Structure formats: C-alpha cells, structure tokens
Amino acid sequence: xxxxxxxxxxxxxxxxxxxxxxxxxxxxxxxxxxxxxxxxxxxxxxxxxxxxxxxxxxxxxxxxxxxxxxxxxxxxxxxxxxxxxxxxxxxxxxxxxxxxxxxxxxxxxxxxxxxxxxxxxxxxxxxxxxxxxxxxxxxxxxxxxxxxxxxxxxxxxxxxxxxxxxxxxxxxxxxxxxxxxxxxxxxxxxxxxxxxxxxxxxxxxxxxxxxxxxxxxxxxxxxxxxxxxxxxxxxxxxxxxxxxxxxxxxxxxxxxxxxxxxxxxxxxxxxxxxxxxxxxxxxxxxxxxxxxxxxxxxxxxxxxxxxxxxxxxxxxxxxxxxxxxxxxxxxxxxxxxxxxxxxxxxxxxxxxxxxxxxxxxxxxxxxxx
Length: 369
Prior knowledge:
The protein contains 12 helices and 2 strands. It has 369 residues and is mainly α. The protein has a two-stranded antiparallel sheet with strand order 1-2.
C-alpha cells in the first residue's frame, strides 16, 4: 500500500508578546503614528502644500466684528467688548503660526453666502477650490506614504507617491462631491418649496417639509466633514474610485462612527498638544535670540529666515500628523467593520515579459508603489 509522504516540517513563525497584544488590541497601532509622522518626506510635502495654499490670492475676505454685551460680562462699569477680525488675521494666528489652510473654507463659505455675484466672487470661489484641491492632493500623497509604511514597515519615495496622487486626487474629489451634490439637490428643493409656505392650507406642510430637507442637508454636510479622512484613506489604501470611496466612508461612519471619532479626535488632540508645545518652544527661542539682534542686519535677517523655515516645517509636521492619523484610523475602522487584515493594501502589479525574474524587496516596492 502506497503511503503519501508527509510534508516537511515548517518552522513556526515567531511572534513577540507585543505583536500578540496588538493583534488583541488593534488600537495600540495608534502609538505608531508618532514615528510615522516624523518622516522628512511627509513633512516636506505638507510644508510645500501649505506654502502653495497660502500664496493663492484671495480677494475681498470678510471682516468680522464680535461684540460682548454688558449683560454677559456681568460688570456694568465695564464697557462692551468688541473684537474686530481683519483679513490680515486670516494668514496669521496670535502666535505667529500660519492658519492659511483654513482660508479655503472661510473664503468659499463667505463667497457662497453673498447675494451679489461679481468677478471677484467668481475668482474667490475658483481660488478657494484650487486651494482645497491642493490640500486634497497633499492628503492623498501623505496618506499613501503612511499606508505603505503601515503595512510594509518601509518608506516609499516622494516621486512614487506624488505619481499616485496625480492619478487618484480626482477620485477623492468625486468622493466628496457626490454627497455635496446630494446636499445641493435637497437645498434646491427646499428653495423651490419656500414660496409655497405662504399658500393657505399648505403653509404648515411646506414649512415642515423644508425643515426636514434643511436637517437632511445639515446631516449630509456634517457627514462630509467627518468622512473626508475616510474618503482619502479609501483612495490611498484600497485604490477606490469616487463612488466606492464615498460608499465606504459613509458605511464606516454610520456603522463604526463612535469608534472612529474617539480614535481620530483623541489622537489629534494629543498630537495637537505636542505641536503647540513645539510652537511655544520655537517662539521662545526666537524671541530670546532676536531680542538682542537688529532685524535690519544680515545676522537678524538670516535668523528670521531660518526661524520661518522652522515654523514652516512645524506646519508640515502638523499636516503629516493629520493625514497619518486619518490613514491609521482608516485601517482600524476597516478592520472593525469588514474584518479586513491590517496588512492588506492595494498595490500596483507591474507587468513583465515571460521568463523575466520578478522584482523583490525595495525594487518591488519602488516599482509597484
């Protein structure tokens, strides 16, 4: 009687206790964000992206004036307190660090709320969309770099990830435009129904319907804001198109929303504290060194230049933290919702002629992204 030979014994794969613990508690992977975000390539891409955003011209930004009445201050002898925000304050925070990545949202919201249309209005909308597209492009590139490092433990080149962003940033944009178009459609329906609110016997019903439509619009807008990191993560990790990234992000948000929000908000708050500490440290050194040097001298100008570079790198690190955190959270939410392994990521399969030896190691990662 013939016997089938038994397969040769295989060596068991060794796993450390920490690896087993991370398999049991996947959210421990959040502690990897610190090391992953301190990547010179991610910081460089983030700093360049913010520099480009800050140099897109925006005209006719709004001026805001906030008045605190005496009843709120609680002291009748104290006059009303007024805070006036000028357009110059949009590019600088009180600490001197750029907040220019908020300009697209503020300028776009202000332009869309204006009742008069003009050339300036159209330019502001176009410039705000360009700024948003630049930030989205940077987000796709950094998220792809973070995804490769998270799954393989190696860091890919800037060129490879920028090429990936070139071909996938439109998919991310469509993933955000689909719910935006849905919100615009509902808003248009509410606008059309508005004049019928004064019709007898129909007014209350129309007002109720418009209220429901307005609530749905607000819900979609908030879902778009909260799901933006998931949309970019779906594109960077799973090679999703616009509709697939939209469906994935909303599915994860509605099924694992609390888990996702706790992870991403908690992580970002912790890293924001470290960022603010770094800003305070840099500004303290800057004030100490520049207080004894004339800014008009060559030494003063040189110090001012290098401190500006250092602040730009801090902003780039902040961008790296945000997109790295959102990518890691996408992996964890996907694991919780779909059971997809953490090491699974889309990779481009390079075609090679028959008989050619396949690429392995670093050459394979560089070729296949």
